[in-house]
């Protein structure tokens, strides 16, 4: 894989450049195989020696820092990944997984659901999930993307993620087994994360339309929280361009209702886009900060 011009000249976002670095290293190692097994072994040995040298230096740096400073460094995605590689991260795998789950809990909560860490045994993370999908096929896909991506980013050393349902799930809730069926089968076609830094420009109460990886997206900010949906009204089938947020009379601050400018259908933005005056709901898309970049999960092959 050749580096893009933006990656070579250093103008690409840090998260993008460093994520691509691992791919380039692997590509170079594969290229060395053309010289035979011995050439490949020597290339791998060179990588190990360089990594060991920088690891020793990083260990020395961490030893000279106080705990508070190390904690601040661990909050940076790139530095945290280096600390993990060299076994220097201040938090164990369970603490990191719990923090990752906390980061996606607001999104799960917008679906009327939650996630609980059952335990981590032999590298397998076991989670208990609930979440109202309201019959929308995209909800289970995007929930899967949000949870799996957050956990694997925080704890890359884990072997697998399993979802359990300790008690029978009421009608209307996503089956935990169904939710993570793609994780177990290794199917990576559920969707992908796309950097969308432009969403950060939205101010509280503002609604904006965006095209993300060719998908029309409607995003809005309620307080400090960002919400993103496919730009498609399930009631009339039209775009939601021109829609604005409203607060219902008598409801607390944080209530946010989106009204379709075409058919006047009302949707609860904070609670998975549920329609308030009829059946149906908007199609939610997770919004998370990944490798320092605001990103949106765009599902693949899911009909609206």
UniProtKB/TrEMBL annotation:
Keyword list, A-Z: 2Fe-2S, Iron, Iron-sulfur, Metal-binding
Rieske domain boundaries: 194-296
Name of a matching Pfam family: NifU
InterPro entries the record matches: FSCA_dom_sf (IPR034904), NIF_FeS_clus_asmbl_NifU_C (IPR001075), Rieske_2Fe-2S (IPR017941), Rieske_2Fe-2S_sf (IPR036922)
Matches recorded under PROSITE patterns: RIESKE (PS51296)
UniProt record similarity statement: Belongs to the NifU family.
Cited function: May be involved in the formation or repair of [Fe-S] clusters present in iron-sulfur proteins.
Protein name: NifU family protein
Organism: Nocardia fusca
């Amino acid at each position: 894989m050749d580096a893009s011009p933006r990656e070579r000249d250093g103008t690409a976002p840090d998260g993008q450049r460093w994520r691509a670095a691992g791919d380039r290293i692997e590509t170079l190692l594969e290229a060395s195989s053309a010289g035979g097994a011995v050439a490949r072994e020597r290339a791998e040995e060179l990588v190990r020696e360089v990594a060991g040298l920088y690891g020793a230096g990083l260990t020395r740096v961490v030893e000279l820092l106080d705990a508070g400073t190390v904690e601040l460094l661990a909050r940076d995605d790139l530095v945290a990944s280096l600390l993990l590689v060299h076994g220097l991260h201040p938090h164990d795998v369970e603490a990191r997984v719990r923090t990752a789950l906390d980061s996606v809990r607001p999104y799960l909560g917008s679906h009327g659901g939650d996630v609980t860490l059952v335990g981590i045994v032999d590298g397998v993370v076991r989670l208990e999930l609930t979440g109202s999908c309201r019959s929308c096929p995209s909800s289970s896909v995007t929930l899967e993307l949000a949870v799996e991506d957050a956990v694997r980013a925080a704890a890359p050393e884990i072997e697998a993620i399993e979802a359990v349902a300790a008690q029978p799930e009421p009608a209307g809730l996503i089956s935990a087994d169904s939710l993570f069926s793609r994780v177990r089968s290794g199917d990576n076609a559920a969707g992908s994360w796309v950097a969308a830094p432009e969403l950060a420009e939205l101010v509280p109460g503002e609604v904006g339309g965006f095209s993300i990886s060719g998908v029309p997206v409607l995003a809005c900010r309620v307080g400090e929280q960002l919400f993103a949906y496919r730009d498609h009204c399930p009631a009339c089938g039209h775009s939601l361009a021109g829609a604005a947020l409203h607060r219902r009379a008598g409801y607390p601050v944080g209530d946010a209702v989106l009204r379709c400018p075409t058919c006047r259908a009302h949707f609860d933005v904070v609670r998975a886009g549920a329609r308030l005056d009829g059946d149906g709901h908007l199609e939610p898309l997770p919004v998370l900060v990944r490798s320092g970049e605001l990103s949106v999960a765009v599902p693949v092959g899911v009909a609206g």
